[in-house]
Write a structure and sequence with these properties.
Length: about 150
Amino acid sequence: MSDVKKDHSIGAGTGAIAGAVTGGAIGSVAGPAGTVVGALAGGAIGAKAGDSLAEVVNPTEYTAHFENSYKSTPYYSTGRDWSDYQPAYQYGYDTYGQYRGQRFEDIEPQLERDWDSSRARSRLAWGEAREAVRDGWHHIERAMPGDADRDGR
């Protein structure tokens, strides 16, 4: 598989997961059947969004960028390592695709609520992870045509 195709598969996969989780949560209002339908619909929509995002921001390059620079950021905490920060950057990547067109500050309360279920093995609490998530979000936003920053929002 070519690297480009692999990167699109990664983007579509992460988008599908984020979409399925969100769709399932929204659909759960309608009961178990709603959860399943919501997860399936959210997964399909998320996969498309993730693939589109991967066309503009290569997920492999995105990860490499932050892995090479996270220790030089103002929010880096001594004693933390890549396994703590990587889930925060991944969360920024995944949620940007999910909430594209919205400002980070506007959806931050939702991101904070969902952080504990998304952080994998990261030892970062939201207060520590917030700036890395935001940094990842804005990294993508700057690369996307018509992003919120350029729209003056």
